[in-house]
């Protein structure tokens, strides 16, 4: 554990130094190819940094924050796009908005935040789930199918909400929420575009969807261009998730996760096309059941099988125990 924490400090100090360079040097270069070339070494470094970890919690967190979000933010920044513009007023803010999964909320009063009891309810359910995993072999298959997506959602929502709350106080500004009650999604478009991990679509929309759609519009009809933009976005998302899995497991990709996102890309694009042609809609309750059911079933077959095979949740539980024991030894001995 001690060596892992040393690696954590070294990796994130390297990241902070690299982002500081981006704040002082590339920001002074004219946007475009030249600025992109100036940030590319940092992007390459951010792809390497997760490999310095053994613990899954450190490798996955670093991969998500640096290899995925920070890299896309810096590439968009090179072309005067994305969440790093307008340029933050000081270096500390630039580091936070680059390295951490946060985005400035432009219209703080435009969204209704859920009441606090909702968050505490989620935290309580998450605490129960941590113990349920010890009895996984006793659970019926139908509950196991729901266990992994629920665990993934709660751990991300609870932890990122806490991070957002702390950074809101530190930075003195309102930040975008990461989730918008995804279990209430009435369609795949609603789920992926407006409810799930909102930091990612905020980056993929200008970074992948818009450029691909714009290029394709010169070669095909606008509806097919939008289809290609949507499919490419989901394909890129699948590749990035494969990369994150590689950082965690250090095994050859199985491409199941990529197929999961390709499937959802095709289905989302078809869903949007059908909505434009057909004006009637299902009841919200039925739409939610179909949407969440489709997500859970396809996730079980394509997304979570790799997590299950690698015993990722069990490994994280062991890592948490090791960390707690390490803290106890340092504090009480």
UniProtKB/TrEMBL annotation:
Chain ranges passing through the membrane: 32-55, 227-248, 286-304
Cell compartment(s), UniProt: Membrane
A GO BP annotation: lipid metabolic process
Record flagged with keyword Transmembrane helix: yes
InterPro entries: Wax_synthase (IPR044851), Wax_synthase_dom (IPR032805), Wax_synthase_Magnoliopsida (IPR017088)
Signal peptide: none
GO annotations of cellular component type: membrane
EC number: 2.3.1.75
Keywords: Acyltransferase, Lipid biosynthesis, Lipid metabolism, Membrane, Transferase, Transmembrane, Transmembrane helix
Domain spans labelled Wax synthase: 176-262
Membrane topology annotation: Multi-pass membrane protein
Catalytic activity, reaction form: a long chain fatty alcohol + a fatty acyl-CoA = a long-chain alcohol wax ester + CoA
A GO molecular function held by the record: long-chain-alcohol O-fatty-acyltransferase activity
Protein family (similarity comment): Belongs to the wax synthase family.
Function in brief: Catalyzes the final step in the synthesis of long-chain linear esters (waxes).
Name of this chain's protein: long-chain-alcohol O-fatty-acyltransferase
Species of provenance: Arabidopsis lyrata subsp. lyrata (Lyre-leaved rock-cress)
């Amino acid at each position: 554990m001690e060596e892992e924490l040393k690696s954590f400090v070294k990796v994130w100090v390297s990241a902070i130094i690299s982002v500081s360079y981006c704040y002082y040097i590339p920001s002074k270069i004219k946007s475009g190819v030249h600025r992109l070339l100036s940030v590319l070494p940092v992007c390459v470094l951010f792809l390497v940094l997760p490999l310095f970890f053994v613990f899954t919690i450190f490798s996955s967190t670093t991969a998500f924050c640096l290899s995925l979000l920070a890299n896309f933010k810096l590439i968009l920044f090179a072309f005067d796009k994305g969440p790093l513009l307008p340029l933050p007023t000081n270096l500390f803010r630039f580091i936070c908005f680059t390295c951490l999964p946060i985005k400035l909320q432009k219209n703080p009063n435009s969204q209704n935040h859920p009441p606090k009891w909702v968050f505490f309810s989620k935290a309580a359910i998450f605490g129960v789930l941590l113990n349920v995993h010890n009895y996984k072999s006793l659970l019926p298959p139908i509950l196991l199918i729901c266990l992994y997506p629920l665990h993934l959602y709660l751990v991300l929502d609870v932890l990122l909400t806490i991070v957002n709350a702390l950074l809101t106080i530190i930075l003195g500004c309102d930040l975008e929420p990461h989730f918008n009650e995804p279990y209430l999604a009435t369609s795949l478009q609603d789920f992926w575009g407006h409810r799930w991990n909102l930091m990612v679509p905020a980056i993929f929309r200008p970074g992948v969807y818009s450029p691909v759609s714009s290029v394709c519009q010169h070669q095909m009809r606008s509806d097919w261009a939008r289809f290609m933009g949507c499919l490419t976005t989901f394909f890129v998302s699948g590749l990035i998730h494969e990369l994150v899995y590689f950082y965690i497991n250090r095994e050859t990709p199985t491409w199941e996760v990529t197929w999961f996102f390709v499937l959802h890309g095709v289905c989302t694009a078809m869903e949007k096309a059908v909505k434009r042609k057909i004006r009637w809609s299902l009841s919200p309750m039925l739409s939610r059941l179909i949407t969440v059911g489709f997500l859970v079933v396809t996730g079980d077959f394509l997304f979570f099988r790799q997590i299950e095979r690698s015993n990722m949740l069990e490994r994280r539980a062991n890592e948490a125990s090791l960390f707690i024991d390490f803290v106890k030894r340092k504090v009480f001995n």
